[in-house]
Amino acid sequence: xxxxxxxxxxxxxxxxxxxxxxxxxxxxxxxxxxxxxxxxxxxxxxxxxxxxxxxxxxxxxxxxxxxxxxxxxxxxxxxxxxxxxxxxxxxxxxxxxxxxxxxxxxxxxxxxxxxxxxxxxxxxxxxxxxxxxxxxxxxxxxxxxxxxxxxxxxxxxxxxxxxxxxxxxxxxxxxxxxxxxxxxxxxxxxxxxxxxxxxxxxxxxxxxxxxxxxxxxxxxxxxxxxxxxxxxxxxxxxxxxxxxxxxxxxxxxxxxxxxxxxxxxxxxxxxxxxxxxxxxxxxxxxxxxxxxxxxxxxxxxxxxxxxxxxxxxxxxxxxxxxxxxxxxxxxxxxxxxxxxxxxxxxxxxxxxxxxxxxxxxxxxxxxxxxxxxxxxxxxxxxxxxxxxxxxxxxxxxxxxxxxxxxxxxxxxxxxxxxxxxxxxxxxxxxxxxxxxxxxxxxxxxxxxxxxxxxxxxxxxxxxxxxxxxxxxxxxxxxxxxxxxxxxxxxxxxxxxxxxxxxxxxxxxxxxxxxxxxxxxxxxxxxxxxxxxxxxxxxxxxxxxxxxxxxxxxxxxxxxxxxxxxxxxxxxxxxxxxxxxx
Amino acid sequence: xxxxxxxxxxxxxxxxxxxxxxxxxxxxxxxxxxxxxxxxxxxxxxxxxxxxxxxxxxxxxxxxxxxxxxxxxxxxxxxxxxxxxxxxxxxxxxxxxxxxxxxxxxxxxxxxxxxxxxxxxxxxxxxxxxxxxxxxxxxxxxxxxxxxxxxxxxxxxxxxxxxxxxxxxxxxxxxxxxxxxxxxxxxxxxxxxxxxxxxxxxxxxxxxxxxxxxxxxxxxxxxxxxxxxxxxxxxxxxxxxxxxxxxxxxxxxxxxxxxxxxxxxxxxxxxxxxxxxxxxxxxxxxxxxxxxxxxxxxxxxxxxxxxxxxxxxxxxxxxxxxxxxxxxxxxxxxxxxxxxxxxxxxxxxxxxxxxxxxxxxxxxxxxxxxxxxxxxxxxxxxxxxxxxxxxxxxxxxxxxxxxxxxxxxxxxxxxxxxxxxxxxxxxxxxxxxxxxxxxxxxxxxxxxxxxxxxxxxxxxxxxxxxxxxxxxxxxxxxxxxxxxxxxxxxxxxxxxxxxxxxxxxxxxxxxxxxxxxxxxxxxxxxxxxxxxxxxxxxxxxxxxxxxxxxxxxxxxxxxxxxxxxxxxxxxxxxxxxxxxx
Lengths: 581, 581
Prior knowledge:
Chains A, B: Pathway: Quinol/quinone metabolism; 1,4-dihydroxy-2-naphthoate biosynthesis; 1,4-dihydroxy-2-naphthoate from chorismate: step 2/7; Quinol/quinone metabolism; menaquinone biosynthesis. 2 copies of one chain form a homodimer. Chain A is an alpha/beta fold. The first copy, chain A, has 3 domains: 3-173, Thiamin diphosphate (ThDP)-binding fold, Pyr/PP domains (Rossmann fold, 3-Layer(aba) Sandwich), CATH 3.40.50; 208-363, Rossmann fold; 372-562, 3-Layer(aba) Sandwich (Rossmann fold), CATH 3.40.50.970. Chain A has helices at residues 3-20, 35-44, 55-69, 87-96, 143-161, 208-215, 231-244, 270-273, 277-282, 298-306, 337-345, 353-371, 379-389, 402-410, 432-440, 452-457, 462-468, 494-503, 510-516, 527-540, 552-576; strands at residues 25-28, 48-51, 73-77, 100-106, 132-135, 167-173, 221-225, 248-250, 266-267, 287-291, 311-315, 330-332, 394-398, 418-422, 446-451, 472-478, 520-522, 543-549. At the A-B interface, helix 2, helix 4, helix 16, helix 17 and helix 18 of A face helix 2, helix 4, helix 16, helix 17 and helix 18 of B.
């Protein structure tokens, strides 16, 4: 058998098995060494192929698709530094537990370490971040080796999907010739359906009686739901809250802030409520049961830090120890949260009714303060405008660092069928546009809330929007620089090095960039125009950039003013109360 | 002593020692965790600081500066995926042996692996690519620990500069508070000058007599100079060629194609001459002595592959085994090429005069064919136009993949004081604009020859050009896609998947992008306007984008036509010759 025939069949069997095992989307970056892979994916004709010249964007795009579909997405790139450009997205995928299959083409062994062009050491190039790295054998089409190729494809998918979901990296040494021969017969091999539809965690059995025993006589509890991606878990938490009469702190990425479920016990204003240390000091908290990852809220993190005496239970569907402040914690790893909620609901835990009622009252007040509208646009109103106009069955993607915090503060619980997503594995400002486009590519019009630094950082993503005419409404909060730093102690140094190191104004005319990528561009000057602009973008589809110009200093004082109002109200409530909570 | 005082002194001593040890340029990307480092670099006030929001661009920018100055450049970024964005440039720096000092800020140990925000595992995040990775101790200002901080700074510089030059990565765990207190007295510590000005390789002593013995009776030899960065090595090779009467194949990155030295023995047309297998078959080659890395030319690589019987000597100033075709090779590692050339020149090696004269004749003919001008612009004429107009004491930076090959073919040896540079460690198309800007930032007007895919890939680099008003003339060969692939076997598949996977036209209006980054933009339609446009850009300074629109198919046939002419001529020469060479 010629090498070309071996190459053709080996790669074709591998590709075929990926499809049979459930892969549907393949993101390819152009290159020569990867020709056997990319041509075979194209020839197979049943994948949705996406081609992006920038591997960094490509990987975040794949991440976005996998985030929304919860199915593994395949990445293909050529040899050399191409793969290194995947690294930021791979790290994000690791921490946010997103399944990705990375296929890198490589020179064969005899061309490594000898100065051959575009050849680098690709073995374990992503360090410990992939769940599985495997250097594939050289192409061969014996019965055994075709079985091997299929086995690796199957195993890659299963490994990526097994909790915690994550990244698999296969490196392909490929000799020339690189162009497969698709005129050959029977190259695809026999399809083998996997017995495992979706790998599940080996579930552990939590000791519910002991857990309940620990909560006995603890009357001031909170359920917390951080970032997580199971809709059914959200419902189960709501049912538990109803059974116990206990408030839920619902992170914007918990899937709990939107949807048809009851929002009676949902407290979404906890970040604003907990901002003040004086307020936190007056709160007496007995226990927290948390589902999902750590919430976005820094005030919540501070609360936890200050309440070291509480019972703190963290429910992990996979494996993890995500508790950054060192409070003694019971981690329930590999625990099915839905089952646990049902079990717990059957136990009669008595939550202090005043405690629960207060949280509902405070939350209502807080929302009123935050929701106050004015004609002049602010970063908060930008979020409220999206909530008011965003269509059902679409996605809001919030960038880091300020936008996700603004969403935390201003995205109130509602009945809309909208999903809120973000990259909260490593909280980077890189690859944001591409991630949002990856979500959009799953046929969901996506709204991206993003700051100007992050926008410029991930600008190359717009090539995908243009080339595939994806539906993305970008709300670009342009305060000409890094807005988040204005809230940090570094801002006190403003006089001297602040603008150079933290402000970093780029003074880019967004309208001109929009023109280069064929985007519709609008810059509404007030609330009314803003809402209309958003509505138009949803009706029109395609790529729209809505620029909202704000001022970093003004933004801080606007936020501060609201937080002060809320703080005064709460101190009055708590200090005036007979039973100090 | 307060933690803040410890932090301030620890970082200040480290930063001070970097300066004393010779660092002058620091490239910072904004972030919060890195505040102690970035503020201290700014406060020290003697560094040239460069701030770039995109770490990928920042790292290539630092690479460009270090490439031109041959001094280590410092990179500073915050925790999280920021560092991962450095990875492509770090790999390029490793393979092209460029000194970089990477300083990453990190959360302290108690905030790692516990779901703290923007926290990833940064230990050995760049795998084996850095020459040295060190996790710094937590800040402390005891006498011992200040000495430790200074020692690490000194050692970082020495390690990066010791052959092979490369990357050092120091990871800084940093607790809050993050803002140093510069009102404190005596924070910078005592300067300690290093005894080592620049680390040198432990030189090995080559056995020159044995080498000469191996070349005895070998009359058809070639000196080859691949990419290398020592001007004095170039002169020594020229002197050796003169002494022996032996041709030099001079790669465009050898520093030999430009300068005041004699170009009598320089053959720069060898790539075009060696393109045809029929021609190569007729050549009888006895030996090659190569300096520097493997040349860009693929034809040269093929020649080597086909002449397994020759004596093949590779002189490595550092350590390396850069010989990708498997021809038996004597590697002279850690060998001072200048000394070796002088030694060799004193031995009477007799090169066949006809052989040497023929190469000079063929080279002259080849250059005539290649140099032929026409009014319609081609990719070759784009190079010739640059050579005709580029000022002395400036740099031409050639992108991958097509531009460096076009420079190889069309950049003829000349007396200009121009340096030609490229990223030939891993030959990526990533970070090209930023690398060129890094060179420009050393006060050299830089001309960048780049294709459209590479231009769009590294577009973010233009933020640096704009923010620092750097002098860069970009000659953008726009053939709307990946031109290199048209020369490869994949092009035969053009009918079906070619444009999707390899052509990858992006259809971006470059003029609009230019406007967004405040660049002057020109699109000359013919030779005369092209030359004038280049001249204007050099006079004006700043950022100019000169778009040269070409057609990928036309380009291939234009190149092919010239190569055919040269092949016919050479076959006639070689076959008609009495003594077949």
